[in-house]
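Input/output pair, single chain:
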Amino acid sequence: MAVSCAEMALDGLRHDWSREEILGLFGQPFMDLIHQAQTYHRQFFDPNEVQVSTLLSIKTGGCPEDCAYCPQSGRYETDLERERLLSVNEVVAAAETAKSRGSTRFCMGAAWRAPKDREIALVAEMIGAVKALGMETCMTLGMLTQSQAQRLKEAGLDYYNHNLDTSPEYYPCIISTRTYQDRLETLRHVRDAGISVCCGGIVGMGEDRADRAGLLQELANLPKHPESVPINLLVQVEGTPLHGVEALDPFEFIRTIAVARILMPASRVRLSAGRTAMSDEMQALCFLAGANSVFYGEKLLTTDNPEADEDKRLFERLGLKFISPDVH
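Output:
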């Protein structure tokens, strides 16, 4: 099911995808889908360049939410230890290390349902300190009010991450402590404040293809596509409700990357959680399918990530280069 450029809006992008169209993309022969995704990728990006971000948990554990995938939920018995909010100096030290390894964006996450205003003041200090290093900044703090989003913008925040996680239909199977509309409201507040949006989801949570299509439909039909679209492969953590769920077929994950690239051709599609379970060959196919961003460093918020040197070796084998720090 090829999509011609003539079918796109005048700005080069579409925001009116139907579920049937997206399922049609998923259902193409694998080689045709990859070719189409790579064609779109080359229209908007250097196909041999990858943007690199580093993610740091600035406040770990004890979250009141019941997200079925998350070891940070205070409702589940996992091995995760609760930790206090890091100091500005600790955050800066981690950002300096990330920059020295080639990261251009430093992402900070706190296990909150929704931050209090006094907590926004603390993270605003972190944003300013990381910006002073010449890095882009990203935060993921839970739900935001309009005034909180504006405060983060004033502090210099470049990106805010707030994932939709899955389709609206499957969402109640994963989370009950906040609604899908709550998530969309936070995205609206972030957009209205003038902050770039980082928004994607998680696959491999027991959903079906229609749900993966539904997630991508929600993202692609936002009034403006997220600038960054993280696609996470579920990392199963013992003690969480999704531990033991059937693993997703690797080719289905790659198809999801390819469809995301076709629907949102000007967005950076990021390989996020789950890369430790991916072979080099699987990751190479993801890059061929349109992924052009990764999280870099040995740890994401709480789960393992490939060693930095391991990523460097893979990039060298594939002829991929880190994006220049002055290109976002």
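The two ends are 31 Å apart (CA to CA). DSSP finds ten helices and ten strands in the chain.
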